[in-house]
Design goal:
With about 240 residues, the chain is an alpha/beta fold. The protein is built from nine helices and eleven strands. Helix content is about 30%, strand content about 25%. The strands form two sheets. It has an eight-stranded mixed beta sheet with strand order 3-4-6-7-8-9-10-11. Strands 2-1-5 form a three-stranded antiparallel beta sheet.
């Protein structure tokens, strides 16, 4: 069984150790594996190299497309597990792309790494089958708001949002570009009864100056509504680079 991964450099899978930069586990030392392919197309996506390949006409604000052969690599699950173990970490973050698109081989990977604590970063549109779900300790769910450019019928699936809202393992991380975006978050919170303590607001941005400027008005909104603020530590530490 194989997994389709993103690459750090051509032919080199994006498997690395770092500190988690976002959400409830921010600052924790972790191993990362970044999978390729996504079922959504956020116009501000900072990992467009996982899906915006040549010939893909879905919009992205950069206008850039990527060569699939240089930015995507297929590996046997056992080889992926070996590379992750070699990093020597106790916690694994599976990100993408959208990991839920590769549920079968991903379940096998986590069975091979059964001694690790696992968090999955998902856009909230997929459902983990039981074999995968039982291996996941934390869901980092990032539903895409209207400014992402995704149609709501694709990005905000009521059945999936309700299931994650009812799952205490799931934390919601909303990317915020303008103060008005928080109104959409509030509407979703009311519709699905999401506890404020499980909602993170994170500024959209791929450089420290933009992130800090947006946090200046985002922090008071978190205070007002009881939400949590998520920084992007990896951007401050390493910039917008792969493998960090």
């Amino acid at each position: 069984m194989v997994l389709v991964l993103a690459t750090q450099t051509p032919g080199e899978p994006e498997i690395f150790a770092s500190v988690q930069g976002e959400g409830p586990s921010a600052g924790m030392p972790v191993a990362f594996v970044r999978l390729s392919r996504c079922n959504l197309a956020c116009q501000w996506c900072d990992t467009a190299y996982t899906w915006h390949f040549e010939g893909d006409e879905r919009p992205h604000r950069s206008g850039e497309t990527f060569d699939r052969s240089a930015n995507q690599v297929t590996m046997e699950v056992v080889d992926v597990a070996e590379r992750i173990r070699a990093l020597g970490q106790k916690r694994l973050v599976v990100t993408g792309g959208e990991p839920g698109l590769q549920a079968g081989p991903l379940a096998q990977l986590l069975e091979d790494l059964e001694d690790m604590t696992v968090e999955i970063e998902t856009n909230g549109t997929t459902k983990a089958p039981p074999r995968l779900d039982i291996r996941i300790d934390q869901y980092n769910v990032s539903p895409k708001l209207s400014h992402s450019g995704n149609p709501a019928e694709l990005a905000l699936i009521p059945e999936r949002l309700a299931a994650y809202a009812a799952d205490p393992r799931a934390f919601f991380k909303f990317v915020i570009a303008e103060p008005s975006d928080v109104e959409e978050v509030l509407a979703l919170q009311r519709s699905y009864a999401i506890p404020p303590s499980r909602i993170f607001l994170m500024p959209e941005g791929t450089d420290s100056a933009t992130i800090r400027a947006r946090e200046e008005w985002l922090a008071p909104l978190c205070l007002q509504h009881g939400f949590r603020l998520s920084d992007r530590l990896h951007i401050h530490l390493f910039g917008d680079t792969r493998g960090t």
